[in-house]
Design brief:
Number of strands: 0
Helix content: over 70%
Shape: globular
Order of helices and strands: HHHHHHHHHHH
Strand content: under 5%
Amino acid sequence: MSTALWSFALVVGLLTITPGLDTALILRTAALGHRRRAWGVVFGIQTGTLVWGAFTSFGVTALLTASHLAYGILRWVGAAYLVWMGTRMLINTWRGQSDAAASEATVPASTDTIAGGWRQGALTNLLNPKVGAFYVALLPQFIPAGAPHVATGLLLTCVHILLGLTWSTVLIVFARVVRGWLQRPHARRLLDRITGTVIAGFGLRLVLSN
């Protein structure tokens, strides 16, 4: 069991630190001074990870990947959400909203909330059917023969969540260090355009992939 645990931790650890959608979303939120919202995004992403891991352990995601209709619906909904979120960031940079927000000394309490970040992070994760397909393909391979399937699957999922929280903490600390530079209007626009392009690109990739 210990060998499977360490092997799984190595695989998901490498995947966790690989730059992607989650990294872009956390960095962007934290770098703009939305500290509480950034942690909300982190908790939302890890909530999604827990749900996918639990579903896989109980065999529910196998039904999703076996059903082309269910997978297709979730794929299109998730892609639409990502494209909408990324496009909105890009449009706001051209409208000057990023400049206005960057000139504020503090982050409005109405936007810097854990609940708002949690919704964004959870939706981003749960509306991505590839996360479910990833768990279906990966998780069972690390459950030793004879081990309790559900309990072991949940244990491995918790390992993934722990690694995700650790890496997210590193990202948030890094974002706080460079926050001063990112508060400049041109840096704010650049950050939003990069993040918006990455998020919208993931949405388009989700649509175009098989």
